[in-house]
Amino acid sequence: MANCIKLNQVYTNICKTVPGISEIFLANQGDISKVFYSTDNSMVSGFTFTGTGTTYFYKIIPPKNQAQLMDDDPVDMGAGTYKFIPKLTFPLNTLNINVWTMYTQLVMGGNFTAVVKYNNGDWFCAAPVNGLTTNGNQSFGSDPATKIGATIAMEGLEPYPIQRLSTDLSNAFESTYVVSI
What we know:
Number of strands: 15
Structural class: mainly beta
Distance between the termini: 35 Å
Largest sheet: 8 strands, mixed
Order of helices and strands: EEEEEEEEHEEEEEEHE
Oligomer: single chain
């Protein structure tokens, strides 16, 4: 209860945690050779990668409260099979050469797995099986919030809904799998 407000010796549910996404991590789907899940398949517990090295996710820090991760309603593919549609939208506020290169790679296609960290410390993984692709709804400099940047919109089609990262993976994620741009 360290982050909650104390009124008249009674703790309320009004906490100081700011909602929203604080960091986004993207990896090329082709770089991930295996995704590990908890025994009940409710959490992502690890990744292994093709190639050498240990840093395969690229870190993006979106402007405060301007990124969104959601699972759209599942699509009934017939015979009781459901697929989930994860969607990730975020602005890139600056377009230095590294960000421009990433923007170009995202827009040109490819499948990406996303790990998202929220301001309250929760971690989620979207599209570990089939990946996210840009859906053709990119805007370049048209959103006043992006100023000189671009807005990326990605979506996928997955057998599982967006899943939490296990506590062990959340604690080790940035030091194990991440390179900043």
